[in-house]
Request: fold
Amino acid sequence: RKKKPLLEVEGLTAGYGAAPVLHDVCLTVRPGEIVAVLGANGAGKTTLLRTLSGLVRADGGRIAFDGEDLRKVRVEQMVRLGIAHVPEGRGVVTELTVDENLRLGGLWRRDRADATRALSEVYDLFPALAQRRASAGHQLSGGERQMLALGRALIGRPRLLLLDEPSLGLAPRITAQILALLRDLRERTGLAVLLVEQNVRSALAIADEGIVLSLGRVVTRNSAADLRDDADLRHAYLGF
Ligand code: ATP
Reply:
């Protein structure tokens, strides 16, 4: 039997001004599920993540997280609810060290002992970060910055990760490593992931389901396996 949805989006409309970017978007993410958000440049993928995390205001529709109406939740509260957004470009503070960046991810937590435990778990998960603990953000490679951004999000022990283009600018080997790690995390912790990814093959290789956005609308919603096998869809929207 399928688990109860963690995130449920229905009829979502959102944008930056008069003209909406997203139209009538529906999607569901269950605990432990990885859902890929696919589509061409400008399809609205980043806007979707930004709307879910409260950075862009929804104009219409319903966003429920664990039964709670997310449209009524302030951005600062999202992280307490268990929603972590890792934006495109990653948002690492380049002047701070790796360790300071990671600690930032746990500053809001009341359970200090668990924040400390989470920090050491992140170092176990990313040995490369442990080695570079004292290095400044600006000294890191692209892959290390992505790991840092992900690690910082994990210190809040999120239930839902909104992950925007984790492979941007990374070598395929590093991308594969990061995606494998997501799969491992969801298995061990039940983490749910909404994954925006240009690299469609890699995304569908680890996702359970996918939605395809075109001009801000969901044109397809299906299992990752069916999306992989759908040649017409791949040609029309996914470019391979
Ligand atoms: P990409 O892969 O290029 O990031 P995307 O699918 O993530 O594409 P969005 O970045 O969500 O697409 O952009 C969707 C539409 O919204 C585009 O037409 C874009 O021009 C517009 N848009 C994005 N950000 C803003 C903004 N801050 N103000 C106004 N319009 C915006």
Remarks:
- The first helix runs from residue 45 to 52.
- The pocket of adenosine-5'-triphosphate is lined by residues 16, 21, 39, 41-47 (CB under 6 Å).
- The chain has a mean pLDDT of 91.
